[in-house]
Amino acid sequence: MTFERISEYQARLRLGQTTVKDEVLLCLERALSQAHLNAFLELYTEEALARAEALDQEISSGNIKPLTGVVVGLKDNICYAGHLVSASSKILEGFQSLYSATVVERLLEQGAVVIGRLNCDEFAMGSSNENSAFGPVLNPLDTSRVPGGSSGGSAAAVAMGACHLSLGTDTGGSVRQPAAYCGVVGFKPTYGRISRHGIIAFASSFDQVGVFGQSVEDVAHLVTFISGKDEFDSTCTADANDVLTLKSEKKFYRIGYSPSWMNSSALNPELQSMLQNFLERSTKEGHTLIPFEIEGMDYAIPVYYILATAEASSNLNRYSGMHYGVRNADADSLESTFKLSRSQGFGPEVQRRIMLGTYVLSEGYYDAYYVKAQKVRRLLRDQFQQIMSECDVFALPTTVGPAFEVGSKCNDPLAMYLEDQFTVLANLTGLPAISIPLGFDKEGMPLALQLMGSAFQEQGLFEAANQFCYKESLK
User: Fold this and answer.
1) At CA 57, angle to CA 53 and CA 59, rounded to 5?
2) Residue 324's pLDDT is what?
3) For the chain, what is the mean pLDDT?
4) How far apart are CA 465 and CA 451, in angstroms?
5) I want to staple 52 with a disulfide (CB 3.0 to 4.6 A). Which of 21, 59, 284, 408 is the partner?
6) What angle is formed at CA 280 by the lines to CA 472 and CA 427, rounded to 5 degrees?
């Protein structure tokens, strides 16, 4: 039987209608049969089957935890003790983690099965998953297209049924954008809800662990058990287990939106039509639409890339060929070790962002770029605090259209960066956001809607997303 919901799956486990081992075997079979998609860098076959057998023993004793038997994949920048982790970069090829990320420990404590390590853009830098040192990931719905990035492997693995849910990281939309392209649910929490301990850093004030799933209900359930304060992460401030089971009764919401975004000329016409249908349908169903015009949004992309690259320049400074990772054998001095190891180990996109970040932090440009960008970020944050006090959720596109073709934007960094134009806002403001399937275009490719919520109000955001998760088709 095909996996549909955690609750239904665990009900079948209790009744003896299936076993965790059977489910793990099914996921492994799907992963292997679709290996050409390059979503998995590594499958933990023997380990996953051994854990499945142990969990089946626990179930036979009447012991079922909240995530018992749930099969989860990990993005290749999330540490798992005794396992390889590389952030899909040659500079960390062969590196084995000495400890587990807090989110991994919490998954295992609650009975989940970790099935493997998932491909991603190198150091989570990219919007198409074409920047991986181990080759691009392909979209399961159309292999001529990208799955989105940087967590493309995580999105593809859920879309192709090789795991029930997966973890990714979202720095500027790296969970929500691939979720939109692969037709699944993708969630980014409030900054500080989920611990970043054990996550290989890209931009520390933006990075958050996100979740992919087939349903809002399952994503919310998983988030409940990986959230909460962590002594290893001082930025993690949320109380543990404060996301509750979603309530099923219909509610009437105050929906904020930007008319200029919903009618943007950048949007694919079919997506624009679906978004207008969503607004019209919401009004007919009794919800209240509240239009807002957002000042400073033209600066969101440049502000994001100034600040994120500045933080990347600082965070990636540790990869020098000295402590771990690749060291060039031809180096004969400290300087040549740094230069040759980084040139060999880092890919073009990572090098580009490090150089840009170093530039905006340099003397003479720090005030002109970095300081101004921080001021604009604060203005956007304050503006959205006011907006969210007047509405329950804020609706906007996730992407400008369906997944684009592999290779179509590789030589145009600016076009690639603009893929994040609707997602960076949630990271700049620290607010929670979720991408939900909205429908399919005439070619059968998924289109999505994004909803943002108030800080640490994920309960309400999940309930709204669950209610608005329509699917229509333009086939």
Assistant:
1) 115
2) 77
3) 94
4) 7
5) 21
6) 80
Cα–Cα distances in angstroms (integers) from residue 474 to residues 145, 285, 468, in the given order: 19, 22, 18
Instruction: Report pLDDT digits (tens) over 225-249.
Output: 999 999 999 999 876 556 667 877 8
Those residues whose C-beta lies under 8 Å from the C-beta of residue 355, and which sit 6 or more positions away, are none
Known catalytic membership, residue 174:
yes
Alpha helices in 81-174 (DSSP H): 102-109, 152-159
**Is the pLDDT score of 41 beyond 90?**
yes
For β-strands 254-257 and 393-397, DSSP reports them as: parallel
The answer to whether residue 387 scores a pLDDT higher than 80 is yes
Alpha helix locations (H) across 290-331?
A: 300-315
CATH class in words for 1-475:
alpha beta
pLDDT at 472: 47
Candidate list 88, 128, 132, 150, residue with the active-site label: 150
Q: How sure is the predictor about 473, in pLDDT bands with cuts at 50, 70 and 90?
A: very low
Q: 449 has which bridge partners?
A: 397, 436
pLDDT for position 336 = 87
* Greater model confidence, 320 or 172: 172
Q: Is 198 exposed, middle or buried (0-12, 13-18, 19+ CB in 10 A)?
A: buried
Active site residue 75: yes
160 touches 27 (CB < 8 A): no
Q: Which two tokens stand for residue 182?
A: 């692969």
Q: Which long-range contacts (CB under 8 A, 24 or more apart) does 408-417 make?
A: 409/128, 410/128, 410/130, 413/349, 413/352, 416/126, 416/127, 416/128, 417/127, 417/301, 417/305
Cis upstream peptide for 389 (omega within 30°): no
| Cα 241 to chain centroid, rounded | 21
Q: What residues form DSSP beta bridges with 118? A: 40, 75
- Please state, in angstroms and rounded to a whole number, the distance separating the CA atoms of residues 69 and 51: 9
| Dihedral angle sign, alpha carbons of residues 258, 179, 127, 327 | positive
Radius of gyration of the chain from its Cα atoms, rounded to whole angstroms: 21
Q: Report how far residue 129's alpha carbon sits from residue 118's, in angstroms, rounded to the nearest whole number.
A: 11
Q: Quickly state the pLDDT bin for 328 (edges 50, 70, 90).
A: confident
Answer yes or no: 362 catalytic: no
Annotated catalytic residue within 86, 128, 174, 282:
174
State what percent of residues in the chain have pLDDT above 70.
97
